[in-house]
Amino acid sequence: MGKNLFSLFLKSVCPLCGRPGEEVVCRDCTRQLQGCAWPAPAQGWRGKLPVFIWGEYGGALKRAIAVLKYDLRPEVGDLLGQWLARDWLKSPLGKQRGLTVVPIPLHADKLKARGFNQAEAIARSFAQITGYQLQGQGLVRVRATAALFGLSLGEREQNLKDALQIRPAWRCQQRILLVDDIYTTGTTVGEAAQVLRSAGMAVAGVAAIAGPNPASLLLR
Question: Model-level pTM?
Answer without folding.
Answer: 0.90
